[in-house]
Design goal:
The chain is α/β, with parallel strands linked by helices and 299 residues long. It has helices spanning 40-50, 65-77, 140-153, 170-176, 184-191, 196-204, 244-257, 262-277, 289-297; strands at 3-7, 11-17, 32-38, 54-62, 80-87, 93-99, 105-110, 132-135, 157-161, 179-183, 210-214, 220-224, 227-231. Keywords: Kinase, Transferase.
């Protein structure tokens, strides 16, 4: 079975449902509430498991009740958590998320800097055996070490970037990744460039990896040499976008691990994310392999 290792953030999300996002100061009464597991790498691992592959997560969580809840949900999703470290004396990462009827969201997160940002990388043996590695770069030392290890092993090394890279690790991450995928906002934050084309050109000067940027409902743009190519978004009605980008990255790493071509892998990942947004909820809304292949076969 194909093994995908996801490295980075695992969170406990507290989700509040609203008809429209509350943007004004004051009290706002939600019409629904749920507590679910989140985090980019953790969600990606759950998406991989739903797609029928072996999913492994490397992360750090606190030794608190929130950490126990995070682990319990990962176990329920079928994710191997042997490389998840519980750190006594530190709080687990917690998010509060407002989700509107149209699927858009507003997210607040607290993660103690000592949990991931300032944590050293694990020993090489801790990464184990994998067919592809996906790092969300929230644990920068582990992301750099893991991507470099994947590169040396000759397997896909996928960097998921949606925020500015830590300066001490940026060159290592970009230099090691075989595939670099930004969110639209992440591209602007990481590169300082206002335009997508300009941002991808900036990244191309710093990595030998293949480059893409996710554009939500507008699809995926990737750089083919000096030319930009667009994969249009699938025509679906969004209900809940929470975790869709993470599902995209997990599915992308899986497709690359299976030896699918770059553009086919992007399409497989986009179909996975498109199906996710059509359903309310968190990880339970991630599609299975047969659903993704049916959508791909219908377009």
């Amino acid at each position: 079975m194909t093994r995908v290792l996801c490295v980075g953030h695992a969170v406990l999300d507290q989700v509040f449902d609203f008809a429209a996002l509350p943007l004004e100061p004051g009290k706002h009464l939600a019409r629904g509430y749920r507590m679910v597991g989140g985090g980019m790498a953790a969600n990606a691992a759950c998406a991989v498991a739903r797609l029928g592959a072996e999913a492994l997560l490397m992360s750090r969580i606190g030794g608190d009740p929130a950490g126990a809840a995070i682990l319990a949900e990962l176990d329920a999703c079928g994710v191997a958590t042997g490389a998840v470290e519980r750190v006594a004396g530190l709080p687990s990462s917690i998010s509060a998320i407002a989700v509107a009827e149209d699927g858009e969201r507003l997210l607040f997160n607290h993660t103690d800097r000592r949990l991931l940002e300032e944590a050293p990388a694990p020993a090489e043996a801790g990464f184990g055996v994998f067919d592809a590695l996906m790092a969300d770069c929230r644990w920068p030392a582990a992301a750099a070490a893991g991507l470099e290890l994947a590169r040396r092993r000759g397997v896909p090394a996928v960097a998921d970037i949606d925020h500015p890279l830590a300066s001490a690790f940026a060159a290592r991450i970009l230099g090691a990744a075989s595939h670099v995928v930004f969110s639209r906002d992440g591209l602007k934050k990481a590169t300082g460039c206002s335009g997508v084309e300009e941002g991808l050109a900036w990244a191309a000067a710093r990595t030998g990896g293949l480059l893409a940027v996710t554009l939500g409902a507008d699809g995926v743009l990737w750089r083919d040499g000096e030319r930009l190519e667009l994969l249009p978004g699938f025509a679906v009605t969004a209900v809940d976008t929470m975790g869709a980008g993470d599902a995209f990255h997990g599915a992308l790493a899986l497709a690359l691990a299976e030896g699918q071509a770059w553009t086919a892998s992007l399409r497989f990942a986009a179909a996975t994310a498109a199906l996710k947004v059509t359903r309310p909820g968190g990880r339970e809304a991630y599609p299975g392999r047969a659903e993704v292949e049916a959508l791909l076969g219908s377009t």
